[in-house]
Amino acid sequence: MANATITSNYAGTAALPYVAPAILSGDTITNGYIEVLDNVRYKANLRKFDGAVIGDATCTFTPPSSGQLTLTDVVLTTDALQVNEQVCNKDLRTAWESEQMRGQSSDSPADFQAFAAQYVAARVAESVERNIWQGKYAIADGGTTGTYNNFAGIMNHIVAGAPAVEDLLTGVTTKANILGRLTDLSEQIPDALAGDPDTKLYMSRGMKQLYYGALAGTAELTFHAAEAANFFNGYEIITPGGMPNDSFLFSKKENLYFGTDLLTDHIEAAVLNLMQTTGDDVTRIIMKFSGGTQVVDLDSIAVARRSS
Q1: Using a CB cutoff of 8 Å and minimum separation of 24, what contacts does 191-195 make?
Q2: The CATH number of the domain where 206 resides is what?
């Protein structure tokens, strides 16, 4: 296994605290934008009831001839995932960390181990966030091979399921056309979603910025204060960090699921120093977990996405 790359301008004095680049937080899980199942062992069945009708009263139990109660299910499947990283302690002794390390057999410093664990966990949370929405999904053409391919995301399941209400968009979304695209989609919302306060409009943060810009060009700008601009035609706008651009989704959160074997695996990383066990002068950061998504009822969503 290759070691992490360490580049240092070490000059023999104490180092300042570790600093990481800004990392996208896993806010879909944190903010409850979709439902989470945290004890999934490879597969979970998500069940849906439908039907049940009212009929004329009789003296006997007479099931209806049509419209009976039905029970169906879809399967949420998770993929096993891991993170394996290691740092050579020898390299740390020639960098700023040498101030905290004593001798040629010293372990990596405690604050470095804590930071490394937190950093790796944060990067995993970022990757999971992207995969929840964009896993195996190509933004530009709605294909099933995208940038993030650890597990199939929400948009991948939508493409595969071909929902009844699906607008296929040509070209990028702009400030000039976003209001028209949202209006066209909102006029097709299924009855199960129409007017329901639990219905949310999911879009990326980039699309939300275009939406603000579009509102700024309308005559009703005065009435679109910051809070009002978080809604479209009465539906609250949700902007998960991993949501792809040029994609808009009307849904209730209980129709969208993420499954994993243990939720805490996304915020904890094991840090192992091998000097006292195998004799290897390295520190390893290890995570093992699983992840997968599913849409329960494709007839209870309305989606617009890029097709070209």
Answers
A1: 192/297, 192/299, 192/300, 193/250, 193/251, 193/252, 193/300, 193/301, 193/302, 195/234
A2: 3.90.1690
